[in-house]
Every structure is written in structure tokens, then in C-alpha cells.
Amino acid sequence: MVTRTVDLRSDTVTKPTEAMRAAMATAEVDDDVLGYDPTVFRLETEMAKIMGKEAALFVPSGTMGNLISVLTHCDVRGSEVILGDNCHIFIYENGGISTIGGVHPRTVKNNSDGTMDLDLIEAAIRDPRGEIVYPTTRLICLENTHANSGGKCLSAEYTDQVGELAKKHDLKLHIDGARIFNSSVALGVPVDRLVRAADSVSVCLSKGIGAPIGSIIVGSKSFIAKARRLRKTLGGGMRQVGVIAAAALVALQENVGKLESDHKKARLLADGLNEMKGLRVDPVETNIVYVEIEEGLHISAGKIVKNLEERGILVMDVSPSRIRIVLHHQISASDVQYALSCFQHAVKGGQSENGN
Amino acid sequence: MVKRIVDLRSDTVTKPTETMRAAMEGAEVGDDVLEHDPTAFHLESEMAKIMGKEAGLFVPSGTMANLISVLVHCESRGSEVILGHNSHIHIYENGGISTLGGVHPRTVKNNDDGTMDIDLIEAAIRDPKEEIVFPTTRLICLENTHCNHGGRCLSVEYTDRVGQIAKKHGLKLHIDGARIFNASVALGVPVDRLVQAADSVSVCLSKGLGAPVGSVIVGSNSFIVKARRLRKTLGGGMRQVGVLCAAALVALKENLPKLESDHKKARLLADGLNKIQGLRVDTSSVETNIIYVEIEEFSGTTAIKLCKDLEEYGILLMQTGLSRLRVALHHQISESDVQFALSCFQKAVNGVQNENGN
A residues 13-72 near B, CB within 8 Å? Predict the structure, then answer.
């Protein structure tokens, strides 16, 4: 029996559309290492313009986008980077900035809205007078939207303030903007304005934007020239890469406009879940929904996830009492309703077990 | 005016064919990080089988394939790898094994045929008794075919002998097999037999096989599990990567049988170039699809000038020294392209000679 599958595990699961597939099949290509691939050149030029930076570089993943950015800003041995204790680079990128790049991380507490207190950031900056025992702080990283905080948006004002702090101490500012477009849409702030204070930004094309593969780093010309070289060193120098850049160009055109509706679906889902006894949903700003299972329900996240899976609803349990749901353009409004009814079943199961 | 272009710079310039493009368009995909993209899985299983190893892993480039292989074999701090002084890993991969991986390289002289003397390899292995001052040798790397030495093939006998040395000293053996299929075809040895002694092999799909992007690493199950994790760390974990793997699967099917004819074209071109006064090619050393062309002093031209002159005819080459050029054949170079290239070379060299009153 074919179950209807509603994959809410991540916005990375988005599959290429017909238009993307057609674009991939007809893409104009060339050897992007020996010279340059014309389609990826177009994509990089377009992204730089959109983000308001001088240049751009296509990379196979967001992880590589961040790794290259940190390592390029911190290209001198003995560097330290300030970043959130709950940020993607620190938690989910295998510690690569250290294990591969030799850069030391200095974490500052992430608030529940994804920010870090400015005074705590400033306090974490190493005093050069102590350099005999200190590494040298070179970079601050922000993450917008902030994944682990529930897809929360960092405002342009906050970003600018961190930028000023960075400038004051002669540091660089990198934004992990995997979902920067979600932030821009939710805040109603043009994306180039949102990242103006940043020296570099990494932007995912394979998440909500829906391309099959890839991310883009944007920054100054000199930064991108170094980044290109480091990309080669890491092994990210692909040949006729235009085949995937073509899909990304279509994705940019087709799907940025759909992000607002992803946010609407997320709010719809969140509201519906919040009405269910035993579930509590964190505030939703973009396309990510975190569901807390209240103690009284006596059913684990793992059990709910399994139950939902049997009905074709795929979600992620992030702890014994917490579930993450991510909306994207390949989830319809009817999928959302179906998901809600399946959650209701799963939760009722818990309630009836406990005689609620 | 549309100029006829004959791109002989590298076999990496191969563009995806119609069948590859169709395959990419219709590829079945999944999130290769969250689970396993089905087309990537298909390619990796296929490659493992072809190469006679337990498992495979698709990566964006040969550089990443080698980087991952060296770093996984040498995962303990303080490791050293033995490799050829003129190998691709040592010369053209930005020193990544050291700058990113912290692995120390110990080079051994590459002979003209791409081998390293067995006794020199053995002499380069660090004696554990002196570990207080030595790094620990963990890995030997071979390269087959050997790029800088004219695409020459390492025989299966030689490879096995190096494998024995490695085993004797508790070391691993990795083969940079970017062009391993060229070696297999030229030697008439099945590719799995050729790499039997190796613990891991990196194989390029984007060179002579003609896929747009990618390489595959093959090795044991446990090796590939570690490799997959390091691939993620380096940033090579792609999502719906099946779109690229679909093209690679077509490439394997369509272009493997064409390598022999690439070698024939190379021999044709090499013989023709050697006959041109002012150029010299060691035709006996042209074993696969790569030709190195020496420019004789009396010709009155240099590599840069000759490259430029030929570019005006639409012939693209790679300058590898003041008086040395490299030519790489691939399946998108026809026999008539070869003839055209020869006549352009003749014109260009004669032209210079006429300029100089020769």
C-alpha cells in the first residue's frame, strides 16, 4: 500500500522540479577549474548582486561554505572565532573549523531568539595585550535564521550592531545565512540590506530555495579569490558544475517567492499543534516549528515520530521530548492538514493510554 | 565567425553528452546526507563491484578523493605518507594533506615510468625504534596512470610488490587512480586485478570517462564509513546528488569502451608530432591518452609562443614548462581533429622557422 509521504524532516529534502531538471539537461557548461563554467559564473554574478557583495563562489554544501569562510578570515595560525554556543557551525559541522582548519572556537551563549548579547560578545574578544597566552580573535559569526532556536530571524539593527562591534575591534563578520532568504522575507527587509554589515555570507540553495545541491559564499573580490583556492584545496573544485548551477538559477527564480507561503504553512501547523492537549509549540517566525511534548502526556518524542512515520509523516525528534518540523515548497496546505490529523491520532494514543 | 575548437588541455574538459543530460534530467534522487540518494547508492555499489572493493563513496573531485583517503588512513596525529616527488597529490593538490590534514609527506623519486624504486620506498619507511624524533609512516600512495610522467601505467606486478612492502611494514596502500581505467585498458588487465593490492583507490569520473563532475573512492566498508564522515566535514556532503551520479553511470557505460581509441588517437598524434622538425616526442612513452611535447631549441619558438599561435587556430594546449607542452586526448576529440591539430602544429612551427629564416 502506497502511503502518502509528507517529509517534514528538513527543507533539504526538496527535490528538483521539472523546470530545474530541464535546465540541468540543457545547461551550457565548461571546465570550471581550468577556466570558468559559464552557467556557474552567471549564478555567482547573480548571487553577488542580490546579496550586495562584490563576488561569489558556488560550493557543494553549506558546511563547505562556512568552513571556507571561517578558514579564509582566519588564515593565520593561532586564530579564534566567536560564535553562538548553539549555532550550526559549532554543533553540526563536525568541528571542522578546528580539526581541519586549526581555528579555535570561543562560544557565547545563544539566546532563545538566536542572538548573542553584545556585551558578552565584546567580553569574549581576546585582549591583544594577553597574546602570550591568548589566541587572536579574528572573526565573529552570526546565524540568520538561527536553526536551533527555531528558525529565528536576526534583525538588520542587531546585525548592524554586531558589525559595528566587529569593526571597532578590527574583526571580520561572517553570517551563516543558510536560510537568509527566509529571514529577509519574514522581516520584510531586502536581503542585501540585512547582510550589509557582513564581510561574508554563506547562503544555501539546497534548502528552502529547493535546488538539488549547493550553497554560495559572497564577499569581497579578494576574499572570494582566496576562498576559491581553499575550495580547491578542500576538494570542492568541480568541473562542468554548470549542470547543477543551472538548477540553482531556476530555484532562485521560482522559489524565493514561495518562502512567504512556507512561513504561513508553518504558522498554520504550529497553531493547530498548539491546540492539542499535551503539545506546546515555540513561537514560529519562519519555516521551522519546534514542538515540546508536555510531561503530562507521557509519550516520548521517539514514539510519536514512529507513529507518524507509519502514516507517512516524517519529522525529526531532537530530544526525548522535542520534535522539529520544517516546512518547504513541496509541502502543500493539504499536507499540513493531513499532518495535523496524524499528530492528533498520535497524541490521542498517548492521552488514551493514560486515561486522559 | 565560429572557430573550430580542439581542446587538448585535459580530459577534464569533456562535456556531458545527450544521454548523460537525459539521465540527469530523469534521475531518481533523495537527500544523500539525511539518508542515501538512490542513484548515488547505485553508482557507489557499481563502482565498488567494478573495482573489487567492499564499498564506494562519490565525491565532488579527485582532490577530495585523495585528501579523504590520505586523511582517513592517517587519522592519528603524527602520521607520515610516502608518495612520489612528482605525484599529483604532492604537486597539484595545494599541499592539503598537510595544511588541512596535518599529515607529513615523505617523497621518493618518481622514475620516468611513474614508479618509485622499491628499495627507496622501503628506505623511506620510518623505523619505529626512533619514534621519539620520527613521525609514523602509515601509508604509501601510488598514482596510476602517472600524470606528470606522461600517463604511464604501473603494472599489476609492480603494484602487487608495493602492496607486499606495505603489508610487511603494517602500512596501507592508496592508489590515486584518477585515470586507472586508462591503465587497465592499456595494460589489458582487469581493473579490479590491477588494484587488488590497494586498500583504497580514488577514481575520476570527470576525466576520460567524461562525466561532468566527480570521483569515487573505493575501499573496505569500515574505511568508507570513515570517509563518508570526513567528506561531510570537508563540505562534500551534497543533497540530491543523484543528478550528478546519473551522468556518471552513463559515462561508465558509454565511455569506458572508448578509452582504447583515445590511446590510438594519442599514438597517432604523437607519431605525427615527432615527425615535425623542431618538436620531439618520446613516442615509446605514450602509453595512454597523454602526450608531452618537447620543443627543440633550434625551432626558435617557446612553449608559450607555440601555445598562443596554436590557440589562434583553435587548438588549446597546456604549457608545462618553458619548452614543454602537454596534450591530452579524450572521446570528444575526433580523428579529424587529430589531423587538424597536426596540420596546425606544422604551420605554427614552420611559421616560426620562416620568421627566423630557417
Answer: 13-16, 21-22, 24-26, 29-31, 33-34, 59-61, 63-65, 67-68
